[in-house]
Amino acid sequence: AAVDNSLAIVVGSGYGGAVAALRLGQAGIRTLVLEMGQLWNTAGSDGKVFCSTSAPDQRSMWFRTRTEAPLATFLWLDVVNKDISSYPGVLDRVHYDNMSVYVGRGVGGGSLVNGGMAVTPVKSYFAEQFPTVDADEMYGTYYPRARAMLGVNTIDPGWFESTEWYRFARTSRKAAGNAGLQTTFVPNVYDFGYMQQEAAGTAPRSALAAEVIYGNNHGKRSLDKTYLAAALGTGNVTIHTLEKVTSVSRAADGSYVLTADRIDTTGAVVETRSYSCTYLFLGGGSLGTSELLVRARDTGALPDLDSTVGAGWGTNGNTMLGRANHIWDTVGANQATMPVLGIDDWANTDNPVFAEIAPLPMGFEHWVSLYLAITKNPERASFTYDSASGTVKLGWTPAQSAVSVSMAKKLFDRINLANATIYRYDLFGGASKVFADDFCYHPLGGCVLGRATDDYGRVKGYDRLYVTDGSLVPGNIGVNPFVTITALAERTMARVLAEDTAP
Ligand code: FDA
Predict the structure, then answer these.
(1) Mutate to test the pocket of ligand 1, among 103, 107, 112, 211 (most ligand atoms within 8 A of CB)
(2) For 27-69, what is each residue's pLDDT tens digit?
(3) Which residues are marked as active site?
(4) Which residues are registered as beta bridge partners of 371?
(5) Is the whole-model pTM more than 0.95?
(6) How high is the ipTM of this complex?
(7) 214 CB less than 6 Å from ligand 1?
(8) I need a surface site. Which of 44, 69, 324, 456 has the fewest CB within 10 A?
(9) Is residue 6 helix, strand or coil?
(10) Half-sphere exposure of 153 toward its Cβ, with a 13 Å CA cutoff?
């Protein structure tokens, strides 16, 4: 096959890929972005680009015939998931042996499907996780740069206190307060001014119409509207969609050679393409980048990759759970899909937990308080290449999930005790499953900064090869991760453009 030459290639168009693409384009470097998902900008026959969580169709999930929503059941009933036709939809759930991981697929990666929570970790924990990174510079330069570019904003507190759409959050705040726990407002990239117009009935509804994990038709400042729009605006960046990079190697002249499968909307491979480039930036996310590099090392394509490639992976301590409120503590039939409050018990050194107060918009009163707990689980796993099957496996075990569960349980037992309430047993499948211990939203690690790379994401063993995504984060960051991933990518690009690409 013919080889397409680019000066720089970026694999993936999530946070890490989008930052790389913009900064390369601004530096005048001809850049090609290869993204396995679709460009989500064309309305379907219903006039909408994305479908809602209440009426999922083929656009919801990546090549599935039935949706696989985080909440498997309601009142133990299989009412949540729906049959759909197979199609390159926007949300994927990648199944490893003991852990499945939700990821976004499309131009914008996770930004298309996530809850938009734009949280900066406490500085001391950042410094603990990244001892070789100058935290002052991160908090003085790169976090502010990332937040500004991402369009981070905060909810108007007066509106929050009065609107029916956040009753669920106020009810959860009250329950936490009864246990002596602090809650904190969390910024978001969803435009809260737009959300207020939705509530007033002056703009089409999105966050107020159960849209989130299968995409938002309005209001959300996803990467296609921020970094990637700016990247394309430089005139130096091109994005190819529905092209999955399957291998990376190096030619004799030192250029990188990539193989990519171009698929159609049935998933059939219609062409296998070869690309070559001088500079290669990996932004396929923790799973995508780790898989590519582990395979490259262990098949001998890039044999000098460090032995720590694939290691240091964690779930950010994710555990989901629900509590049942008393009949007088209603959560409301109307719930906005963008979380804005967290229970912040991270400073509790015995049991550090930051729990996002999550919505459960079902269109009727259900008295459920839902949470995504982020725990300081120290457990880590590795990706390994299985030569027999040619696949990359993840060595995470149920015992490692149990560590997150016991930390979340300690916190929520306190809340239940103080409020004389109980857990919900009907949400995650099985007869009495309280804690969702088998999936996560925050895959982190696999190519950890300062171990598998230098302190700026330059991959050890190979020059002009960089990692810019969540695989740099060592398994846990204590809060929702995308602002950190974006800020680290900004830091890498500033350094690389200053030192590595000068003519
Ligand atoms: P990301 O996963 O964003 O992007 C990787 C891209 O590369 C994808 O588009 C993928 O298709 C593509 N790709 C992968 N392999 C490839 C290959 N071989 N070839 C071509 N393309 C390839 N975080 C947060 O901070 N606040 C929040 O509120 C939430 N909420 C949330 C909800 C849900 C449902 C999910 C799934 C996730 C979140 N997150 C979140 C997590 C957040 O979205 C996540 O941490 C980031 O998207 C990770 O950014 P990356 O750049 O690492 O990869």
Answers:
(1) 103
(2) 999 999 999 999 999 999 999 999 999 899 999 999 999 999 9
(3) 356, 442
(4) 321, 357
(5) yes
(6) 0.99
(7) no
(8) 44
(9) strand
(10) 15
